[in-house]
Write a structure and sequence with these properties.
It contains eleven helices and 14 strands. The protein is α/β, with parallel strands linked by helices. The longest helix is centred in the C-terminal third of the chain and has 34 residues. The two termini are 39 Å apart.
Length: 376
């Protein structure tokens, strides 16, 4: 499997554990400080590389922190195609108190200059032209200087090159790329917080789509199958495969052929407050091996991904999950697999297509006009 990972905003991840509870204005002594090379793209790429996949990584790096990113990718055997920037690579700091409550502080990378972004696009164009990847994983936040117009330009170029785009992006960015035919991904992977942002957007713009689901809070998405119902509605409207991670509630996958609901396993103690979703997605893509329409393969991939995430968050020592560690959890998972009736799905798809066809055409026209104006 040939995979291209695009992670434009790699970071240095610092985790600081405290023995007291977090309160505003207090001074704390750190019990443990841990530093990792991270960012969603690097985490997912590392998982796939350690399982033996051929992975290429494209991104921006800068300064001394950027050299650490280069070293990490080299050590993992990942072919890195990096654009050197004048600005420093970002830092993500997480504080975890004695009760497991976490606070996150992001110092984003960038700003990315025009010449640096153009060099980045040259790499993307070269990779698509010379060795078409089976899919491209586009993940993580955007550095300063890369806006939604530039993000859509990247997705549009990948789609034109017949590359399946897997989008693991912040909720506000997923909201922007759902509509528009040319910049729509093949699959997206929101977590439950990002799913709620999608709900807020649909609540404000499409009353029919969220009929009988108004007035919900983010907490409501953790109970009563609310998240699963909304994922189904998103799929029926946009036709994008969706793999949603639901924190401690497991995951939910929906595509043209199947719906798979998986409850996760209880974790006795959490040692990492970040990266589980990246490990989940990386392992899912590895185990799926590109067979997104094969139900047994999808079920196996989700069981493997769930087991990998459980091992990752509960593992004290450094390092990502190994196959031997995942094996003791996989047999305990019992996903609920619901194959779809193809005829019924086709009727729904035709209806959804008629509903949004005009909106997509208008959106594509507006995107092209904005892009031309920006380049001028």
């Amino acid at each position: 499997m040939n995979c291209l990972v695009i992670g434009m905003n790699p970071t240095i991840d610092r985790t600081i554990r405290l023995k007291e509870k977090l309160h505003s204005g207090n001074i704390y002594n750190a019990v443990n400080v841990r530093e990792d090379i991270g960012g969603s793209g690097i985490n997912a790429a590392t998982v796939m590389a350690r399982f033996g996949e051929d992975v290429k990584y494209i991104g921006f790096v800068g300064g001394e922190r950027g050299q650490k990113v280069r070293k990490k990718l080299r050590e993992e055997g990942i072919q890195a195609m990096l654009v050197e920037t004048e600005s420093q690579t970002g830092v993500c700091t997480r504080l975890i108190d004695c009760e497991g409550n976490a606070m996150r502080i992001d110092e984003p990378g960038g700003p990315i200059k025009n010449a640096e972004f153009n060099a980045f696009m040259d790499i993307v164009n070269r990779e698509i032209s010379t060795d078409i990847p089976q899919f491209a994983l586009l993940c993580g936040s955007l550095p300063q200087g890369v806006d939604i117009i530039r993000l859509k330009k990247i997705i549009r170029r990948l789609n034109h090159g017949n590359v399946k785009v897997i989008a693991d992006l912040p909720g506000e960015l997923l909201c922007e790329i759902c509509e528009g035919r040319e910049c729509k991904p093949f699959m997206m992977k929101p977590n439950i917080s990002e799913l709620y942002k999608l709900y807020e957007k649909e609540r404000d713009t499409d009353k029919d789509m969220v009929k009988k689901m108004t007035g919900l809070t983010e907490e409501d998405f953790h109970t009563g199958g609310t998240a699963e119902r909304f994922v189904r509605r998103l799929f029926n409207k946009y036709g994008i495969n969706i793999l949603c991670t639901l924190d401690s509630d497991g995951s939910y996958y929906v595509s043209d052929s199947v719906e798979i609901e998986t409850k996760t396993l209880e974790v006795p103690e959490v040692y990492r407050a970040y990266g589980a979703g990246d490990v989940f997605l990386g392992c899912f893509l590895y185990a799926c091996d590109g067979y997104f329409s094969e139900i047994p393969q999808l079920e196996y991939a989700i069981k493997a991904a769930t087991s990998a995430a459980v091992v990752y968050v509960s593992k004290i020592a450094d390092g990502l999950p190994m196959a031997s560690e995942m094996g003791k959890y996989m047999h305990k998972l019992k996903p609920k697999v619901k194959p779809k009736e193809k005829g019924r799905r086709r009727r729904k798809k035709r209806t959804a297509t008629r509903t949004i066809k005009k909106k997509e055409a208008e959106s594509a026209h507006e995107e092209s006009a904005k892009e031309e104006k920006t380049e001028e």
